Amino acid sequence: MMWVNRLRRARRRAQPDRNIVIKPVYIDYPCEVSTAEPSPTSTAGVESSPSKRATIGDVAARAGVSKSTVSFVVNGRPGVSATSRDRVLRAAAALGWQPSARARALSRNRTQAVGLVIRRDPELLSTDPFFPQFMAGIEIGLAAREYSLVLQVVGDEQSERAAYRRFARESRADGVFLTDLRIHDTRPEELRELGLTAVIVAPEGTEPGGDPTIGMNDDAGVRRAVHHLHSLGHQHIAHVMGTAGYVHTEARRRAWQGALEELGLPIGTVVTADFTGASGARATHELLDLPQPPTAIVYGNDLMAIAGISVAADRGLRVPDDLSVVGFDDIPLAPYTVPPLTTVRQNVVAWGTAAAQTLVALVEGKQPPPVDLPPVEFIVRGSTGRTSTRDTGSR
Amino acid sequence: MMWVNRLRRARRRAQPDRNIVIKPVYIDYPCEVSTAEPSPTSTAGVESSPSKRATIGDVAARAGVSKSTVSFVVNGRPGVSATSRDRVLRAAAALGWQPSARARALSRNRTQAVGLVIRRDPELLSTDPFFPQFMAGIEIGLAAREYSLVLQVVGDEQSERAAYRRFARESRADGVFLTDLRIHDTRPEELRELGLTAVIVAPEGTEPGGDPTIGMNDDAGVRRAVHHLHSLGHQHIAHVMGTAGYVHTEARRRAWQGALEELGLPIGTVVTADFTGASGARATHELLDLPQPPTAIVYGNDLMAIAGISVAADRGLRVPDDLSVVGFDDIPLAPYTVPPLTTVRQNVVAWGTAAAQTLVALVEGKQPPPVDLPPVEFIVRGSTGRTSTRDTGSR
DNA sequence: TTGTACGCGTTATCAG
DNA sequence: CTGATAACGCGTACAA
Q: Which SUPFAM superfamilies does the record match to this protein (chains A, B) (predicted)?
């Protein structure tokens, strides 16, 4: 019933404009209007084939025009008289016709879909805030709703390659996102070989050559974190890195180090971890076991930072009095740790939106719109504070 | 180069069996074998059209058979002589031909894709462990790799409806998953009207009628939590519910209440929240402000529980001495809260796998395999303990 | 504006 | 049995 109402409204709306360039027509109703019983309106129709979806031919016949004319109308192309246009729309509405996406894909040789491969260790899969937000952002960028997002979740590198190959081979996607860029990543080249249009998602400043890169300057957040700690009197600031080899991991480490150099502070210890809680805990123990332990630690993500707080508590250290902790991501839990976590927040949703818009533009051979991402934010909460240690540079 | 090797291997494998029923052939190489320079092998070919993808017609011509024969071979249908089969495979390998997924979709009237609509408040999007794990599970269930997962992330109910309509209208998916079932949910019916095959993902015992339901008995976990608290001497056990109206929200509340009744404990206070940290914090304050505050709280998810711990800490209460806390989900952070969180864990990945297998079977008109999900686990960590309050039932 | 070939497999029909 | 022919699914694009 609801559908019928929609249908009526759609029909009423169908007053043709003059034949200026006309927007594509989009009619919002399900494939088959009359399913079970022949609806009263359809009796007026020419041939009521109830359970069969109408085709462009049916519409053309009913409107008394050719298929091409119908195609022109639906695609908003000029060169159709107002009367024909009107008749076509009327016929389409009456038959409940929608152009078939499948037939379109075949003749246009495009799927109208973009692909995303998610590669994550099982443990990180449900904690990493990146992908959910990124996907939400993509959807916003795909907002015209004419593209779909095809997803594949994989666990290792080999499956990842296979996933991209599959996208290409089965033409599942017209373009793909490339995330988690690694140092000396060979994937951009591989995607080119596969003939897949790609947008690379990586921190600003990355130049993998060729494909366009959408990036945020997340290292600005890390720099601000170090400056913040310095202003609180910290001299010994360590860093717990995420998985080595990723561009963003390195970018964060470089930002930490660069800030220390700027401030003339000694370069603290770096421990390589892998973004998991367990690795963050281990790294924290390592740092606190040093003969001269840091008074502050900057972590590569929130999960490791929170594990660090937990380790500190276990060892009887107070946060932030004995140890200040900074995370990265600002997961929704960050305000609810004890103490609340100071961290860096990027607008991942906006990032995804920009990436999607760029990718769609590329796929359609248009000029990608300029990207303007909001700046990274540094969120000060309770896990950072003045150090209680008289930190004179050596003790 | 890699491709060439694969190709050789594929070719070598191509020894035809006898004409028993033959498995579909699957060749793993990219669409176009020779891209830039004409490869040495292709000169031996009949017509080397470098940049153009081969079609079934080309293969048929090269093998000296008809298109139907090629089709039969690729689809593993009987009725093809071993010689023909051999020639076809040889020709296909030589031309690097793959059946076009698009053409197949058109003629088979199937997309070979399943759809998932994710509806979440922005805040919960990046914390909720359900969807990432569920998606990973789906991928495993789609393992034969012949189906794709098409995703849509939406924020509200209206967009959700639109998403399903779009799946149907554009034939983006042959079937869909229906998650977050609500009480008196109208979506199953709507999906039926749209002609979309669906699998409902909801707690065990739900009977929305019609569509098959894949469920876990997550309430068993909540029951065990209550029993555990009882065994620790708790008499006043409250519950913080998630968003009202969801089947799983209600199921958890009922499980909590049922366990209390079983044990002859007074039914504690229920506060309705919405799964966010903020709501969990607010609910906790409410409970602790009661004239007779609970000594233990069972939360509808981990995020709210962790917020609860934070509130308790702010109010100077010790967890678990003054207040025991139980969560639900076992997010990867749960071991790293202070104290570590006692919680309930479901195997969401297995759930997703089962759902996917069921959906694919339905779409293909086969009998769905029996589902056998691992039981829910109850994970005791540090946030629950003997109550320090002399809890005699009234104080 | 229209006719029509085309994109690419699938499948029913029919002949060998 | 084996295999070929042709119609079909549904738009798009180009020539007329």
A: lambda repressor-like DNA-binding domains (SSF47413), Periplasmic binding protein-like I (SSF53822)
